[in-house]
Amino acid sequence: MLVLLRYLWALPNTLLGLVPVLIVQLQGGHVRRVEGVIEVAGGVVTLLLTALPIKPLAMTLGHVVWAIDEPALVRTREHERVHVRQYERWGPLFLPAYLLASLAMKLRGRDAYRDNPFEREAYNKAG
After folding, report:
1. Model's pTM, two decimal places?
2. Closest CA to 9 of 98, 126, 93
3. Assuming Cys at both sites, which of 19, 41, 108, 126 could form a disulfide with 30, CB separation 3.0 to 4.6 Å?
4. Helical axes 70-90 vs 94-107, angle rounded to 10°
5. Residue boundaries of the structural domains of the chain
């Protein structure tokens, strides 16, 4: 029951992450479920990620992880799983909280990505 509640709480963000899945599959990209998380790589997801200012290898939206390619999924899996757990705790509040934390770091003259508390937790727990 608790697992179902965690999935439901993160569902709004998961739905965002699922938007490009059909397109990625049609483009011959990679979509699979690993440990209860849908992993998506290639195609339009690669274009979306490389268009971002920080050029991440991967990004998590609820229970969906986008990556530029399959090796990036493997390389970032542990880090992105920390973000999945953060989404399970914060639910629909995660994205606003993450963005506000980045803004707060930027306003303090710090790095909006590396100094973001959500990223620090992911880097510390993932090693």
Report:
1. 0.95
2. 93
3. 41
4. 100
5. 2-91
